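[audit] Reproducing an earlier prediction to check determinism. Same input, same settings, fresh worker. If the tokens differ from the archived copy the diff job will pick it up downstream; this log only records the rerun itself.
[audit] input (131 residues):
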Amino acid sequence: MTRGQAVNPNVCGVTAVVAVIDGKWKTSLLWLLEAGPQRPAELRRLLPGLSEKVLTQALREMESDGLVHREVYDILPLKTVYSLTDFGRRLSDALGPISDLGHERLDRMAAAQVEQVEQVERVGQVELPTS
């Protein structure tokens, strides 16, 4: 999926939305910004493994796509704060049920894994006949 699909009027609406949140960090950034405006350093602290370069790129793309607003305060040192736009908040709200489905899937997978472990333990408890 490419970001170009986000502006192509001939694609499915879901594809257009997924294109703007595609990537490793964008949904996490949306989730963190739901709580309120954040400075970039705070976002990096909350997402270990996210480099400054990738954070900057993701936030610029999200700003370009209308998901976040960047406010730069003209003080020394410069202070930059990111917040969700109305569109970003609506998208985040729309992703809530998808998140619920994801958690439901994870719960089912965990239960299946527990069941597999229990089956292996039951098989291990069965005594094999000796000859």
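[audit] rerun output stored. Observation attached for the diff report: DSSP finds five helices and two strands in the chain.
[audit] end
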